[in-house]
Amino acid sequence: MKLTDHEKSMLDGEHGAPVQKAMEILVALGKIYDAERLIPIQSAHVAGLSLKSHGVAGMEWVEEMAASAAKVCIPTTLNVIGLDRSRDLGLPEDWCDKQMRIGKAYECMGCYGNSSCVPYYHGFTPRFGEHIAWAESSAVVYTNSVLGARDNREGGPSALAAALTGRTPLYGYHLDAERLANVHVRVSARLRNLADYGALGAFVGKRFSNAVPAFSGLSAMRTEDHVYLGAALASSGGVALYHVLGMTPDALFNDDKVLAKDCIELEVTEKELTMGREQLCSGTSRQIDYVAVGCPHCSLNQLAELARLLDGKKVNSGVTMWIHTNVAIKGLAAQLGIIDAIERSGAVVTQDLCTILSCPEALGFKNVVTNSAKMAFYAPGSNGFNIWFDDVARCVDAAVTGTYTE
Amino acid sequence: MDRIKCRIISKGKAEGEALLCSQPIGFNFSVDVETGVVTEHKHELENVSIKDKILVFPNGKGSTGGSYVVYQLARLKTGPKAIINKICEPIIAVGAIIGDLPVVDSLETDPYAVIENGDHVTVDAINGFVEVTKRGAQ
C-alpha cells in the first residue's frame, strides 16, 4: 500500500503511540482488502460504547488510548451509551460508573459526547460522494444509501483509528464499482408503517446478509421509513448499502448503472413480509411489563406522533414505557412541548441510551413490545427479553392496557 | 493431511476442533462473552459454545460493536481459538487484530467441502495455510 510521507511518519510513531496504533489498524485493514492507499475522510462516528460490547477489557483498552493523549483530528460523534445522563432510571450503580468511564475516555480524545445513533438528524449530515468512517450499523447503511456518502462497515476501533488519523483505507463501498446491487428485490407487499419496513429489512437481511440489495416497488418513503428499513437490513443481516430504484442518490437516474449484470431476483409479497415479522417475534406471555420504541432513536416526527397517540391516556401501572432519543432531538421536542405531552401519560423519554445497549433487564422486565425490528432482533440475546413486534399504535395500546393484542 | 492456502486477516497460529456454522455470526449481543455461548434467538448455533473451537462461518453481520466483543472473547479466552471465514468483513477483522486472534479467509478450497465438525484443524495465519486432520484419522 502506498503511504504519503506524513502517513509514514504516523506509522513510525513520530506523532505518538495512539496515532501509531491507529495507523497500524488502518494499514492492516488496507492490506487485507487490497487498498492501494489511504484517503482523507471528513468525519467519523464511533460506536460500540455500551459496556456490554466493551466489557472491562474494552474499557481498559480505550482508557489506555485516552491516557496516552490520543486526540481526534476530524469532527467525531459518539454513539448511544448505556445510561441516561440527565436522570436516574434506577440502573445499577456499577454499570453506570463503568459506562460513564467509557464515555469520558472517548470525550477526552475530543469526540462529541452526543450519544446518538442518528447524528444525521441533528447537524452531522454527510453529503453525496463524501468519504467518511462511521460505525453504528444503522448509521452506516443510512449515510451510504440515503445520503450517498461513501462508508464501510467500520467497527468501533477502526472508526476511532480513522478519527485519530483523519484517514481510511480506500476499499469496499468507497469505490463506485463495489456499490452495484447484486440482489434486485421486487416489493409487491403493502408497507403501512415503520414495523413493516423493519419486517422487509429483516426478511431480506437474513437471506442476503452481505449483499447490496436494490428495491423496486417502493414509493413515497419518509426519512424514518429508510432509517427503520436500513437498521433491520444491518441487524438481521450485515448490509451496509441498499438502493431504491428511482429514489436513493446512486440509483436516481439510471437503473442499469446500479444493477450488477448477474443480479439475483427476489420477490417480497405479503407472505414474505409476514415471514419477516415472524422472524422477529419471540413473545410468549401477552401480559406486558415493558414497552420500548426508538431504536434507532426517535426523530422529532416520531415523538410528535407518540404525543398524539398517548394524548389523554395513562401508561398501565404494571408497565414501563421508554421512548428512546438523544439530547439534541429531546431538547427541541421539549421546547415544542412534545416531551411534556408524552410524559403526562407516564411514558419516559430517555436520552443517551437505548434498550439493547443499556440494561433495563436489571429492572426485572421480561415481556416486551416494540415497533423496532432492530430491537426485536437483538433484545432476546442482549436483554433476555421475549419480544412482540408490531406497529407503534399497538405498542401504545399494550402500554396503556398492560396486554398485547394483535 | 490437506494443506489449504488462504488469505491472512489477523496473524497468529492455533489448532483445535472444528465447529462449522452455515449462517453469518454477529458477535455483539449474540455471543455471551463470559461463556462463549451463542445467544442469538433462532440462530443455528443458539445455546452452543464456540469456546476453544476453530470456528468456521461464512461472514460477520450486524452490530459494529462486534469488534469489541471479538476483542473481549480473545482477551478473556472464552472465544474461538481461530476463525475461518469465507469472506471476512472489517468488524471481525479489527477485533481480531487488536485481540491477537488468528483469522483467515478466502481458502483456495471451499472450507465447507473439506472440513467437518470435530475435525482437527490447524490455522497458520503467519504462513497463510490451513491444515485439516479428519476426525479419527490420527
Summarize the structure.
With 406 residues, chain A is an alpha/beta fold.
Provide key terms for this protein:
A: 406 residues; alpha/beta; Aconitase, domain 3; 3 domains; five-stranded parallel beta sheet; B: 138 residues; Glucose Oxidase, domain 1; 8 strands; 18% helix
Please describe what this structure looks like.
The complex is a heterodimer of chains A (406) and B (138). With 406 residues, chain A is of the alpha/beta class. Chain A folds into 3 domains: 5-172, Aconitase, domain 3; 180-278, no CATH class; 290-401, 2-Layer Sandwich (Aconitase, domain 3). Chain A has helices at 5-11, 17-32, 51-67, 93-108, 137-147, 156-165, 194-207, 223-233, 255-258, 270-280, 300-310, 327-335, 338-343, 373-383, 392-401, and strands spanning 38-40, 44-46, 76-78, 133-134, 167-169, 181-187, 213-216, 243-244, 259-268, 290-293, 320-324, 348-350, 367-370, 386-389. In chain A, helix 14 (373-383) links the parallel strand 13 (367-370) and strand 14 (386-389). The N and C termini of chain A lie far apart (56 Å). Chain B has 138 residues and is α/β, with parallel strands linked by helices. Helix content of chain B is 18%, strand content 28%. Chain B has an 8-stranded mixed β-sheet. The longest helix of chain B is centred in the middle third of the chain and has 11 residues, at 66-76. Chain B is globular. The mean pLDDT of chain B is 94. The chains are: A alpha/beta (406), B alpha/beta (138). Chains A and B meet through helix 2, helix 3, helix 6 and helix 14 of A and strand 2, helix 1 and helix 2 of B.
**Percentage of β-strand residues of chain B:** 25-35%
Most extensive chain interface and residues per partner: A-B, 45 and 41 residues
* Helix and strand composition category of chain B: alpha/beta
Radius of gyration of chain A: 21 Å
The largest β sheet of chain A comes out as: 5 strands, parallel
Helix count of chain B equals 3
Number of helices of chain A: 15
Enumerate the strands of the largest sheet of chain A in spatial order, edge to edge or round the barrel: 12-11-10-13-14
